[in-house]
Structure of Glutathione peroxidase:
Amino acid sequence: MSIYNFKVKAVDGKEVSLEEYKGKVLIIANTASKCGFTPQYEDLQKLYSKYKKEGLEILGFPCNQFANQEPGTSQEAQSFCTMNYGVEFPIFAKIDVRGEDVIPLFKYLTDKAPHQGFDLDNPNGKLIYSVLSSKFPSYIHGDSIKWNFTKFVIGRDGEVLKRFEPYVEPRDMEGYIKEVL
């Protein structure tokens, strides 16, 4: 099994097979418009612009499961990304990335790339851990998504290669992306 076995919904509700991205290196991220990490859209777009011709695709999945930080519709999330960050990569329909209603793709991603712990030496890693500990303690345990902007890198063969937690900036992923491309 690979990510090519999954289908997701586009903003317009149409089903999209991830097989359409066969042979590409993918970054799949859960996103939100009102999050402290929302400016990561800018660096994701920079990576996309720089490496698209080499086969990089980025797939954004808006999610409202973390402190109501994506309250609008899927269309509003897509418009926000385009207008505020010039995002050209696909933004899909809003989804759940954890809990009972997690979509199968994100269940698969977290199974293949489990949570490796919090980097408490990273100020943002320490901040996320602190917020989760005090406000969402159940989120700390297990391999599920911890917060917005968890990023997964998928190889050209559709296999999950690596998971980057929200506090890892997209620009800090560039060396790894170049290696994989």
